[in-house]
TrEMBL record:
It comes from Hydrogenophaga pseudoflava. This is General stress protein 69. It is an enzyme of class 1 (oxidoreductase). Residues 14-309 form the NADP-dependent oxidoreductase domain. SUPFAM superfamilies: NAD(P)-linked oxidoreductase (SSF51430).
């Protein structure tokens, strides 16, 4: 697979997002299936694995540590802090955004234990806690760099001004946010800021949370599937968005690739500094995603894709009101 720079690291152009194996899109897969996917990715040349304390409230980090720690020298490990599961009054863990320095450092210690490693290569602030100055949270991450707990710092779902403030405290190696044909927010200002500062851009949900993979029955989503709360997947909006797929699928057929490969290839063509991290629970889908690295798109095809699926043709926000209030990104 072609290689790209992720901050100071050279990694596979396509990485693996490890959220899906235990979090977000319904019931988690078995540990055996998670192991198959993780090891198949490593065997196929994936050298960038991305997880977080939030995913499965530590379960994803645990699985990555259990099945990949013995191969630690073969890949770049990324994880995230600042958003974790905290027990409520009933003892049930709920998602909490907490960017206080002491919380960041405690979360890192837990992550190192779960990941079975002495150091995390790239450690992101998963969400900026707006009650805490970004300089304080990044300062805590800088302390972790100096202590040898992490090698570099990343930010997730932040705006260009916040990135600049953070970068003034300590160099930021990577910024991660949603980016795909149907989520273009990074194009407003963040991509340009990353390029000015020499920050790699990691694109999560590159296949539009499954929308660009093929037909889906949104009514059949698991009760815990996070897409149920996303406006683009509401019955009304999804019916309108589906109207984009026939022309999109026709372009994929013309290029000679699958719909998911077309989506990831489009991202790879947006710049050498962009690293997609699709996630999956299927080895078959994993191999399909990785195949996008070999897909070449002409300028004409890219122009047609841009005209077909963009912020003006997609119906519905990417997040609901609550989730939108928790991110710090520019919006069209």
């Amino acid at each position: 697979m072609q290689q790209r720079q992720l901050g100071p690291f050279t990694v596979s152009a396509i990485g693996l997002g490890c959220m899906n194996i235990c979090h977000a899109y319904g019931a988690p897969v078995s540990e055996q299936q998670a192991e198959r996917v993780l090891l198949a990715a490593l065997d196929a040349g994936v050298t960038h694995f991305d997880t977080a304390a939030l995913y499965g409230f530590g379960a994803s980090e645990t699985l990555v540590g259990r099945f990949l720690s013995q191969h630690r020298s073969k890949f770049t490990l990324a994880s995230k802090c600042g958003m974790t599961g905290v027990p409520n009054e009933q003892g049930v863990k709920v998602r909490v955004i907490d960017g206080r320095p002491e919380t960041i450092k405690a979360t890192c210690e837990d992550a190192l234990r779960r990941l079975q490693t002495e150091v995390i290569d790239l450690y992101y602030l998963h969400r900026w806690d707006k009650k805490v100055p970004i300089e304080d949270s990044v300062g805590a991450l800088a302390d972790l760099v100096h202590a040898g707990k992490i090698r570099s710092i990343g930010l997730s779902e932040v705006s260009a001004p916040t990135l600049r403030k953070a970068h003034a405290v300590h160099p930021i190696a990577a910024l991660q946010t949603e980016y795909s044909l149907w989520s273009r927010n990074p194009e407003i200002a963040v991509l340009q800021a990353c390029r000015e500062l020499g920050v790699s851009f990691v694109a999560f949900s590159p296949v539009a949370r499954g929308f660009l993979c093929g037909p889906m029955d949104v009514s059949a989503f698991d009760a815990k599937d996070i897409r149920r709360s996303m406006p683009r997947f509401s019955p009304e909006n999804y019916a309108k968005n589906q109207a984009l797929l026939p022309a999109y699928n026709a372009i994929a057929a013309e290029v000679g690739c699958t719909p998911s490969q077309l989506a990831i290839a489009w991202l790879l063509h947006q710049g050498q500094d962009i690293l997609p991290i699709p996630g999956t629970t299927s080895v078959e889908h994993l191999m399909d995603d990785i195949g996008a690295a070999a897909v070449s798109l002409s300028a004409d095809v890219i122009a047609r894709l841009n005209a077909l699926i963009n912020q003006h043709t997609v119906h519905g926000d990417r997040y609901n009101a609550q989730a939108n209030s928790e991110v710090d990104t520019e919006v069209f």
